[in-house]
Fold this sequence. Notes:
By secondary structure, this protein is mainly alpha-helical. The protein is built from 1 helix and no strands. It has one helix spanning 2-67. It is rod-shaped, with a radius of gyration of 29 Å. The protein starts with a helix and ends with a helix.
Amino acid sequence: ILSEKFNKEIEIIKKNQGEILKLKNAMDILKDASGSLNCRIDQAEERISELKDRLFENTQSQKTKKQE
């Protein structure tokens, strides 16, 4: 009887370890996805900044041409 209880406890522990491993893997996937998303956001912000700079330069250039 004690052996059966011990074996059941071991089965439960193994099952819990498997669930923990699955959760860890899911967390790793989410962490990678989050990092990738942050990288893409940074790239988009950089591109927006470049476009704003170009727009400002074009606007200044047009103002200069009008004054001439």
